[in-house]
Amino acid sequence: MDQGARAALQRGMCRLADGDRGAFPEVFAALWPVLRSFAARALPAFAEAEDAAQSALLKIFARSAEFDRRREALPWALGIAAYECRTLRKARARRREDVSGEPPEAADVRTPEDAAIERDLQAAAAEVLGGLRALDAETLLAAARGERDPSATFRKRLERALTRFREQWRARHGAD
Amino acid sequence: MEPIELRARARRAYELGRARLGAKAAAAALAIAAAAAALGRPLLLTAVLGAALASLAAALVFRGRASGRAVWTGLWAGSAAMVLPLALSTLGCRMFGEACMRFCLPVCMVGGLAMGFALATVARGQEEGEVEFLAGGAAVAALAASLGCTLAGAGGIAAMALGTVLAGAPVWLAARASR
Q: Which residues of A touch B21 (CB under 8 A)?
C-alpha cells in the first residue's frame, strides 16, 4: 500500500470512528485486499487465509468506532489480522494434537494385509471344520461362541474334537 | 462468504460497535443518576431524569459526529455541576445547618457557569461542527446537572441554564471571532 492509500485509509478510519457512515465503502475497499494478501502470506491454506481475513475485517469494523485517531490505521488493522492468523494456526495445531493424542483403536491398527490373512485363515478353518463329524464341529463352534457346558462330558468332547481338528489341519496345511 | 454478504456483515459489525459505545455512555449516565439517588435525591425524579440522560447519551454516541463527541464532555461537566448542590445539601447542611440551603440557587448558578465555560472551551477546539458539539454537550450536561439542581426546584434548573449561557456564550463567541 503506497503512502497516498495509507493516508486515505487513515482519513477513512478517522471518519468512521467519528460516526461518518459515508466513509464505510471507502474503508472497506481499501482494507479487504490488504487483509486478504496479508492472511494469504501468513497461512498456507487458502480457505484458512480467507477465514482469517474475513474474521479480521469484521473485528476491525466492530472496533472502528473506538479507533484512536492518533494511531496509524494500517498497522492497527494488520495487528488485528495477525492476531486472527495466529489464533487460526493455534486452533489447527490443537486439532492436530487432539488427533495424534487419541489411543489407536484395534480396527484402525489392522492393515488391509492383516485383514486378508485373517479372511484366509477363517476360510481354511471353515474348510477343516466342514470335514469333521457334525458333533465335533458343533462342539467346537459352541466353545468358540463361549457357550461352554461346565460338565466333564463337554470338556472331554471338546478335547477330542480339538485333537481331530488339529489332525485334519495338519493333514491339509502341514502345520499347527 | 460472498463479497456482498461480507460487506453487509462488516456494516452490521460497525453499527454494533457503535451501539456498544453508546451503551457505555448510557451506563455512565445511569451511574451518575445512581450517585444522585445515593446522595438523597428522590428516586422517581432521579429515575426519570436518569433514563432521559441515558437514552440521549446512547443515541448521540451511536449517531456519532460532533454531538456524539460532546457526550463525554457533557457528562463530566454536568456531573460536576450536579455534585455542587448535592454537596451543599449533604456536607454543607451537616456543617452549617439548614440555613446553608439558601445558597442552593447560587450554587446551581456557579455549577452552570463552570459547565458552560468547560463546554465552550472544548467546543472551540473542534475542527468542525462546533455548534452541534455545543448543542449536544449542553443537552447532556443540562440533564446531568438537573439531577442535582432540582434540589432548588425549577429555579435551580433555570439558574444552572442561565449560568451555562453566561459563561459559555462569551467563550464561544470569542473563539468564533478569532477564526
A: 65-66
Q: What is the pLDDT of residue B51?
A: 96
As a 3-state breakdown, chain B gives helix, strand, coil percent values, each rounded to 5, of 90, 0, 10
Query: If you count residue pairs, one on A and one on B, with CB atoms under 8 Å apart, how many are there?
Result: 48
Answer yes or no: do B6 and A32 touch at CB < 8 A. yes
Q: How confident is the model at residue A121 (pLDDT cuts 50, 70, 90)?
A: confident
pLDDT at B18: 96
Task: Give B136: exposed, middle or buried? Use CB within 10 Å, 0-12, 13-18, 19+.
Answer: buried
A78 touching chain B per CB within 8 A: no
CATH classification for the domain delimited by A3-101, as one of 1.10.1740.10, 1.10.12.10, 3.90.550.10, 3.10.150.10: 1.10.1740.10
Over residues A11-22, the pLDDT tens digits come to: 999 999 999 999
Mutate to test the interface with A, among B18, B61, B69, B71 (most CBs of A within 10 A): B18
State pTM to two decimals: 0.70
**CA atoms of B129 and A73, how far apart (whole Å):** 24
**For residue A46, which residues of chain B lie inside 8 Å, CB to CB?**
none
**Whether residue A98 has pLDDT greater than 80:** no
Rounded mean pLDDT of chain B? 89
Mean pLDDT, range B128-143, rounded to an integer: 91
A54 CB within 8 Å of a chain B CB? yes
Q: Do B14 and A65 touch (CB under 8 A)?
A: yes
Cell representation of residue B33: 443518576
Distance CA B149, CA B105 (A): 8
CB contact under 8 A, B65 and A20: yes
**Nearest Cα to Cα of residue B133 among B119, B117, B118, B143:** B119
Give residue limits of the domains in chain B: 3-177
Q: Would you state the pLDDT for residue A170?
A: 77
Q: What percent of chain A lies above the pLDDT cut of 70?
A: 86
